[in-house]
Amino acid sequence: MRNEIPTKELIWSLPKAELHLHLEGTLEPEMMMQMAKRNNVALGYQSVAELREAYVFADLQSFLDIYYAGCSVLVEEQDFYDLTIAYLERARSQGVCHAEVFFDPQSHTSRGVSFETVVRGIHRALEEYQASFQMSSRLILSFLRHLSEDDALATLEEATPFLGWITAVGLDSSEVGNPPSKFTRVFARARERHLLAVAHAGEEGPPEYIWEALDLLHAARIDHGVRCLGDAALVARLVARQTTLTVCPLSNVKLHVFPTLAGSNFADLIDEGLRVTVNSDDPAYFGGYIGDNFLAVAEAFALDTAQVVQLARNSFLGSFLSEPDKELRLHQLSSVASSISF
Ligand code: HPA
Ligand code: ZN
């Protein structure tokens, strides 16, 4: 394979899975303004330009404040459908053939939008892309960790009629001060209902939160996890079990987890033998979808084609696809990758 940094066209053409994506974080300013208008929601921003100018964040919390304000325009089932379709189209254009997406029901039910409204709109869009483009997907119900465990338990109850559409539970929002241990009971109940688990841990929080996500929540993947390098025993465990880390490079820079991409530990994670994947997190806010994230790390760390293909391989290996479906996707990836080698 070529040794030089692969081109954008090549990177985008590689079949890949997205494993860390908040649907509400794909709400582009144009769509936000349109929905605010059609739903009569006062946004506090007069134009798309003004909105974009507000997207300067000091840390995770300053982002979340704007992200939850943006969620307020999502009211009708059609809004959730339109949001999801817009994401799927962008992701597909950048090579995504399988997407495992988070949604935050509590940020909607707390405003009086029913769980059913949210999940029906999202599910309809996911089904449509499976039927029209063979784009497979999984839905992950993410609990807001700044709220109580009782609130999460009530949300899981509301989800009961729709569990056939939901593969896993997750944990997001303000990390520091809200450790995974706060949610042990609700994750146990989700396990009883045959849901898988993932959790954000080690984005701003310490390595102990990653241990808790693994040991107490039985997380199959760690979302972000970039702070694991501070703990050698943790790294050894993650490597031994090849636990997938869903890393979000552009997000980490936007939220000042690292000062720059080149100054991030992305290459160190790979060098440690960790199973690293590349994802977009909240692309409407962080400046790029998955292909943009792949390209940014390839350029920042001078990755060659083989390394970029390995990142795409990892995305399928770390997915919740069945083993035969993983094989199929890996085969498709190999075919594309071999067509670009000389
Ligand atoms: N981190 C934590 N919670 C979130 C994020 C994130 O990047 N995006 C949406 N909710
Ligand atoms: Zn996230």
Walk me through this protein's architecture.
This protein is α/β, with parallel strands linked by helices. The chain has a single domain (8-338), classed as Alpha-Beta Barrel (TIM Barrel). The protein has 17 helices and 8 strands. It has an 8-stranded parallel β-sheet with strand order 1-2-3-4-5-6-7-8, sandwiched between helices. The longest helix is centred in the middle third of the chain and has 19 residues, at 115-133. It starts with 7 loop residues before the first helix and ends with a helix. The mean pLDDT is 97. Zinc ion binds at residues 20, 22, 172, 200, 223, 281.
Note the topology.
Elements: H1 8-13, E1 16-18, H2 29-38, H3 48-53, H4 60-71, H5 77-93, E2 96-103, H6 106-109, H7 115-133, E3 136-144, H8 149-159, E4 168-172, H9 184-192, E5 196-201, H10 207-215, E6 221-224, H11 232-240, E7 244-247, H12 249-254, H13 266-271, E8 275-278, H14 283-286, H15 290-300, H16 305-317, H17 323-340
Parallel strand pairs: 1-2, 2-3, 3-4, 4-5, 5-6, 6-7, 7-8
Helix pairs in contact: 5-7, 8-9, 16-17
Bound molecules: hypoxanthine and zinc ion.
